Amino acid sequence: MRVIVEADGGSRGNPGPAGYGAVVLDATTGEILAERAESIGTATNNVAEYGGLIAGLEAAVALGATEVDARMDSKLVVEQMSGRWQIKNEGLRPLAAKAADLVRRFDVVRFSWIPRAQNKRADALANRAMDAAAGKPVRSARDVADDAEPAPLPRPEIAGPDSPGRRLARDIAAGASPARGAAAPPVGSGGTVGAAVPAGGWEPRLAAPLRLILIRHGETSLTAQRRYSGRVDVALTERGLAQARAVADSLTGVAIDAVVSSPLERCLRTAEFLKAPIVTDPDLIECDFGDWDGLTFAEVRERWPDRVNAWLASGDVAPPGGESFETVATRVQAAVSRIRTRFPQGNIAVVSHVSPIKLILRDALAAGEAFLHRAHLDPAGISTVDLYPDGGISVRGVNETAHLRFLADR
Question: Which of 36, 5, 378, 23 lies closest to 197, judged by CA?
Fold first, then answer.
């Protein structure tokens, strides 16, 4: 479902009594699907504006939207969420990170600047929130809908599904060639930004990212024999301990703020070598392989040939008595969200297992299910993902093992 989110916020005094408003519209009909408004006490205009955006995106999630056109008259929020402006205000970074987390819930999100005159619905809701304490009557968004001068609704697709890239190109072309009789936006005024929030991008980011250093635990007796090892709590071998030391040595000089680890021993023992505070998260535990735990792939193939084929074909299929990759993905995404909330920036080492790390990389690369069966992660291999406040993602490395070369002949 494709929707438009119009959002606004403000304060009386900057900082002062503040509130925000947001309206969710059907992108085809213009029907108002949801309204949100709230007073947030004393705050700045920018904090209130981010509050309106977050409320609007949350409402769109609740409605089941897959594609969002987010429109605001705050150039600062639009430019920061589009990745073009640095977020210098420390107080705005957690809000931008929360908005970015919501953005990742949709297939496509485009941010556009619109004049205040075209944002009357959200503006009315924001004013209602600011006036609530004083008991002043404020009209609802539906009351002002007829007075508003809304931005043009997106044209419906004519022939078949449209790709995000094609839509973005069309938006850019439309922005470059204003409709006949319409004045072109002045240079530097922002105009209609119309850019989709990138999952990655060519342009350099100015805001510092949260860097996830993804580390697979060192070797165990089961990994050495290429056996499934899910929930079984098996210790590191001597070689695994040497690999864990090598990981720590390779990261000497990297200021690791914290380690978030699976609670299983093989991960915790690997994490201890990093000499940083350790937080355990059970959602980072390996996939539950059920009846397959402890067996080799050949043994599993011999006993459950049909189930193996179905498992390889779909992430929704679970091993007998175990859990599917998509179930694992849900809890791993929750773990990453908690990490981002607790550590908006810095270097965080995540010590986990093959499946959780592959799922993090799959999401970061916007890859399909086949990635899970084609990517290879060695014991004690290191992968690196940067997560930016604006929603940008950069995969810096996958399964780096140069630090393990001296162990090759052991």
Answer: 5
CB distance 78 to 190 below 8 Å: yes
* Size (the chain), residues: 410
> What pLDDT, on a 0 to 100 scale, did the predictor assign at position 275?
87
- Round to whole Å and give the CA distance between 238 and 117: 69
Q: How far apart are CA 69 and CA 60, in angstroms?
A: 10
Sequence-distant (≥ 6) Cβ neighbours of residue 212 within 8 angstroms: 336, 339, 348, 350, 360, 384, 385, 386, 387
Query: Which positions ≥6 away from 338 have C-beta within 8 Å?
Result: 281
Catalytic residue among 6, 286, 323, 403: 286
SS3 247: helix
Look at the pTM and tell me if it is higher than 0.85.
no
List 395's β-bridge partners, or say none: 385
> 3-state DSSP call for residue 8?
strand
Residues 6+ apart with CB under 8 A from 159: none
Q: What pLDDT sits at residue 12?
A: 86
Residues paired with residue 254 on neighbouring β-strands, in sequence order: none
Per the annotation, where are the binding residues? Answer: 266
| CA–CA dist 355, 250 (Å, integer) | 23
Residues in the chain where the model's pLDDT stays below 50: 133-134, 138-142, 144-200, 410
Clarify whether 403 is annotated catalytic. Answer: no
Question: Which residues contribute to the annotated binding site for substrate?
Answer: 266
For the question of residue 286 being annotated catalytic, the response is: yes
**Which one of 79, 217, 219, 403 is the catalytic residue?**
217
Tokens of 330: 């849900």
What tokens appear for 210 in the block?
């949260």
Q: What pLDDT shows up at residue 203?
A: 57
**Degrees to nearest 5, angle at CA 38 with 42 and 92:** 55
What's the Cα-to-Cα distance from 285 to each of 27, 215, 387, rounded to whole Å?
41, 13, 22
Domains along the chain with CATH numbers? 2-196 (3.30.420.10), 210-407 (3.40.50.1240)
